[in-house]
Fold this protein.
Amino acid sequence: MPKTVFSAMRPTGKLHLGHLLGALRNWVDLQDKAQCIYSIADWHALMSEYEQSRQVRGHMTDMVLDWLACGIDPKKSIIYLQSDVPEHLELQMVLACLTPLGWLERNPTYKEQLREISSRDLQTYAFLGYPVLQAADILLYKADAVPIGEDQVPHLELCREIGRRFNFVYKTELFPDCKAILTPVPRLLGTDNRKMSKSYNNAINLSDTPDAIREKTVRMITDPKRIRKTDPGHPDECNVYSYYKVFAPDIEKDARHWCSNALKGCVDCKKVMGGRLVEHLGFIREKRAELGKDKNFVPDVLREGAKKARAIAVKTMEQVKEAVFVRS
Ligand code: TRP
């Protein structure tokens, strides 16, 4: 059992199904098993959004509301804004000194983002160092478990390497090894069959209205080999079918049957799924609307969270400075 759990998300927009299944469900479950610390990574958001930086604050409120609506509970977990705890940047600096450039340049997530995201200039000094700040986030709280989506695994790998290198260089055992906690659910693709991401404009958001959910679902790309309604489809090659596995396991077999035998067209199949998603997200949407009424709620939660997070962070930084400047 982990003792301290840490995770974070960047406030770059509303949360979508990928976040819910890839990480949030785990975040909620872990709250009863360990001390959980959940951070809004606004400095990380700035690394790609530095030209639209004013939007980050609005996204932050949206995101916290989504977290709370999904069941993240400020009475159990520490929820705070990364930039409210300046020690993140201090530790980043120390770790940056001992992180070889090659580790960062080889990082597959970094290379993928440079390739795929053309709407932003990501050829910056800070963006290359993204995983160093992420390592600082985790190590600052000496977290031993990090619930994340699959796409973050390379970053966590780097975090472990950086923590070990610190321990090695300064002959200490200050930083524990941390392990990833992944959800068993396969990665859900976006409506266009690419990774679900706000920047690809292919996401179904947790706060989407029922109409928006139905419309997005009906536009989803299905089995590309099924051209006419009378052609039998290939469920295992269809993204919509993977949604059935997650959101409608009770009729997954039926979906497979009607698709493989061309008994139902893709549009009808997607309409059924749209209805399921509306139902599934209805509860979250209601809770979110309820919480959103009190404008002080989110700021209060974050203020309390920052106090608790900082108490831990300040202690770690004292130990870090001691290891670096005194004992080495
Ligand atoms: N990189 C993560 C993401 O894009 C966000 C993040 C920042 C994070 N710091 C972290 C995740 C520390 C886990 C642990 O989703």
